[in-house]
Amino acid sequence: MNDIATPTAPRVGFISLGCPKALVDSERILTQLRVEGYALSPSYDDADVVVVNTCGFIDSAVEESLDAIGEAMAENGKVIVTGCLGKRADVIREAHPGVLSISGPQDYASVMDAVHAALPPRHDPFIDLMPAPRLGAEDYADGVKLTPKHYAYLKISEGCNHRCSFCIIPSMRGDLVSRPVDEVLREAERLVRGGVRELLVVSQDTSAYGVDLRYAEREWRGKAYQTRMKALCEGLSELDAWVRLHYVYPYPHVDGIIELMTARRADGQPRLLPYLDIPFQHASPRILKLMKRPGAVERTLERVQSWRAACPELTVRSTFIVGFPGETEAEFESLLDFLDEAQLDRVGAFAYSPVQGAAANALPDPVPEEVKQERLARFMERQAEISAARLEAKVGTVQRCIVDAIDGDLAIARSMADAPEIDGLVQVQDGRDAGLRPGEFADIRIMGSDEHDLYGEVEYND
Ligand code: SF4
């Protein structure tokens, strides 16, 4: 992390844990710190105070967060805690009674108040003619980003109206609160103007975007847009960037989004990346009911198949939980059958682990740990074969890719089918020789594949 203010400025260390939504919170806090003249410290020793942005989603994330707080306490001693685990202040206080302050997710004001109390901002009468401003949401587009320069997460809403029995996010982040569409589009516009080439739309439930605002209509670039997923996607597709959707539920109105994935821009590229990240979580109707998940499986499978028929290049990514309380061997096998039928491109899976405060903890018939692990291994093995076959089918094709990094002779790139961090890579063997640079697009001829990644050579470099 770079130093962002003068050497004499008060210095803040920052640890960011958790999902992309937490990352966006971290970026906003860091931006506010910069506006107020604080410097960032890359080490505990140099920091005057340390902020830890925590995750509290599953028990292992809680442990990781508590460990990070413990390390910061031991190494520095002045620690401000924020983020999802902040909603469970008792857990933090019990493990680390000496922390300076605890606040929940998105509570930027409490974090800044705690920083001010621990470390008053340096007042310089020659430059501080005005008090530092509190930034509005869209000002953050010009702020500190924790992702590489060429991609950015675009958070469109907070919270969630569902009540999945294994999840405590609604109790931590509350019900759905959408950002008005013009605000999101203006932030996206500024990000693209600042060099971002790929926008990753994140929320807890992207399909539900705008329902809390009754799809309020706003204006952007002289045109009316509803605060609704399709209108948002139409607006984003006007920008010169890849737009990738995460956390989409398979509701009927997603069909309209597929149309944007098949439509082309003037340069022949899809208006919206043909990529959907849909957390199915399971395929057994009984388990989905116990999970309190929306959506019936038959229809889901049909829907995925109809999307593929309309948009053959569509990549579907999903996540699943195996070993949910009460899951029988037959129900688990129905999940394997679903994998065979749905032929998903990318899949993440977890063995169920109870989360403190989740309704699912009260369900009977927990699956023994060794059975969970055995099912997880079988699940991953089945999906690995599917993923490998789907990637192998791309050998010989030319894929439009974005370059993330240069590593020796290789360019490390991603195709339209690969979201950063969670999906695979395209290793471009002649990337350096071809003069590729991070953030650039190139057409790559695919020469080989394995379970996760593709290997290729430059066909055409923009
Ligand atoms: S959709 Fe379910 S799992 Fe996702 S945040 Fe909402 S309650 Fe949690």
From TrEMBL:
<dbReference type="InterPro" id="IPR006638">
    <property type="entry name" value="Elp3/MiaA/NifB-like_rSAM"/>
</dbReference>
<dbReference type="Pfam" id="PF18693">
    <property type="entry name" value="TRAM_2"/>
</dbReference>
<keyword id="KW-0004">4Fe-4S</keyword>
<feature type="domain" description="TRAM">
    <location>
        <begin position="392"/>
        <end position="460"/>
    </location>
</feature>
<feature type="domain" description="MTTase N-terminal">
    <location>
        <begin position="10"/>
        <end position="120"/>
    </location>
</feature>
<keyword id="KW-0411">Iron-sulfur</keyword>
<keyword id="KW-0479">Metal-binding</keyword>
<dbReference type="InterPro" id="IPR005840">
    <property type="entry name" value="Ribosomal_uS12_MeSTrfase_RimO"/>
</dbReference>
<feature type="binding site">
    <location>
        <position position="19"/>
    </location>
    <ligand>
        <name>[4Fe-4S] cluster 1</name>
    </ligand>
</feature>
<feature type="binding site">
    <location>
        <position position="84"/>
    </location>
    <ligand>
        <name>[4Fe-4S] cluster 1</name>
    </ligand>
</feature>
<dbReference type="InterPro" id="IPR005839">
    <property type="entry name" value="Methylthiotransferase"/>
</dbReference>
<keyword id="KW-0808">Transferase</keyword>
<dbReference type="InterPro" id="IPR007197">
    <property type="entry name" value="rSAM"/>
</dbReference>
<dbReference type="InterPro" id="IPR058240">
    <property type="entry name" value="rSAM_sf"/>
</dbReference>
<feature type="binding site">
    <location>
        <position position="160"/>
    </location>
    <ligand>
        <name>[4Fe-4S] cluster 2</name>
    </ligand>
</feature>
<dbReference type="InterPro" id="IPR002792">
    <property type="entry name" value="TRAM_dom"/>
</dbReference>
<dbReference type="InterPro" id="IPR013848">
    <property type="entry name" value="Methylthiotransferase_N"/>
</dbReference>
<keyword id="KW-0408">Iron</keyword>
<dbReference type="InterPro" id="IPR020612">
    <property type="entry name" value="Methylthiotransferase_CS"/>
</dbReference>
<comment type="similarity">
    <text>Belongs to the methylthiotransferase family. RimO subfamily.</text>
</comment>
<feature type="binding site">
    <location>
        <position position="164"/>
    </location>
    <ligand>
        <name>[4Fe-4S] cluster 2</name>
    </ligand>
</feature>
<dbReference type="Pfam" id="PF00919">
    <property type="entry name" value="UPF0004"/>
</dbReference>
<dbReference type="InterPro" id="IPR023404">
    <property type="entry name" value="rSAM_horseshoe"/>
</dbReference>
<dbReference type="Pfam" id="PF04055">
    <property type="entry name" value="Radical_SAM"/>
</dbReference>
<keyword id="KW-0687">Ribonucleoprotein</keyword>
<feature type="binding site">
    <location>
        <position position="167"/>
    </location>
    <ligand>
        <name>[4Fe-4S] cluster 2</name>
    </ligand>
</feature>
<protein>
    <recommendedName>
        <fullName>Ribosomal protein uS12 methylthiotransferase RimO</fullName>
        <ecNumber>2.8.4.4</ecNumber>
    </recommendedName>
</protein>
<dbReference type="GO" id="GO:0005840">
    <property type="term" value="C:ribosome"/>
</dbReference>
<dbReference type="InterPro" id="IPR038135">
    <property type="entry name" value="Methylthiotransferase_N_sf"/>
</dbReference>
<dbReference type="InterPro" id="IPR012340">
    <property type="entry name" value="NA-bd_OB-fold"/>
</dbReference>
<keyword id="KW-0963">Cytoplasm</keyword>
<keyword id="KW-0689">Ribosomal protein</keyword>
<keyword id="KW-0949">S-adenosyl-L-methionine</keyword>
<feature type="domain" description="Radical SAM core">
    <location>
        <begin position="146"/>
        <end position="389"/>
    </location>
</feature>
<feature type="binding site">
    <location>
        <position position="55"/>
    </location>
    <ligand>
        <name>[4Fe-4S] cluster 1</name>
    </ligand>
</feature>
<comment type="function">
    <text>Catalyzes the methylthiolation of an aspartic acid residue of ribosomal protein uS12.</text>
</comment>
